[in-house]
Design a protein that fits this description.
The chain is built from four helices and four strands. The longest helix has 21 residues. The radius of gyration is 15 Å and the shape is globular. It is about 35% helix and about 10% strand. It is an alpha+beta fold and about 140 residues long. Helix 1 packs across helix 2.
Length: about 140
Amino acid sequence: MNTVPTMQEVAEHVHADHYKGTINGIILAGVIPEYGGQPSIWMNTKADTEWLKWVGVLANAAREVNGEWEPNWEDTTQTKYYFHYSQNNIRWCWTHHSTAGAIVFKSLEHANAAREMLNEWSKQQGLEEDGILLRALGVVKGGRK
């Protein structure tokens, strides 16, 4: 049986000076040099901070399942997969272009593996099925439902 690593194990693994929190050019834990070194994202409310935490967890899961793969945004033939909430369901979508801040996966199989990992972590956090993903997509606000 394949064991799902914990959120902490994945965070330690993916942040071993390899991954700096970049999501489509938005540096979550730093600054964007083009903007004069100003913070790249401002947290105005506790809800903003909570949402960003769940986005970080989703980004960690993506880094874990994608391995060393990075999307090539200049390659308009490379398919990138991402999660989207529509009609009361989480769906996967694909694109060859930029996805306005979505965290992308190398393949549908990688996206599904991340979703399984996120569901295990949701259980560990006392959240409903897809709880972390729903929060990272901004559908559910805050902690436990």
